[in-house]
């Protein structure tokens, strides 16, 4: 079995004050600034959807306690099942 880690920032748009610290601090340039404003009148940060490595720099640089979290999951990849599927596909191809 092998573990595959999936990470991404979750930004609470209504708590974000648009200071852009997370945008400047992200080494992957994975956070962007919206053209739109939240209800408090700030342009808010949002995740581009790509590139997060889970380093948490954005979390530690954000001054708003409720604005940004980094979520991390471990996806368990079962190598045995993967090999069985590959073997089946290979056998079918040989017939
Ligand atoms: S956890 Fe790191 S890579 Fe991911 S968005 Fe935050 S600063 Fe960028
Ligand atoms: S650091 Fe926090 S408050 Fe500043 S733009 Fe990013 S999410 Fe918003």
TrEMBL record:
Residues 7-36, 42-73 form the 4Fe-4S ferredoxin-type domain. This is Ketoisovalerate ferredoxin oxidoreductase gamma subunit VorC. It comes from the Archaea. It comes from Methanobrevibacter millerae. It holds the Pfam family Fer4_7. GO terms for molecular function: oxidoreductase activity. Gene3D superfamilies: 3.30.70.20.
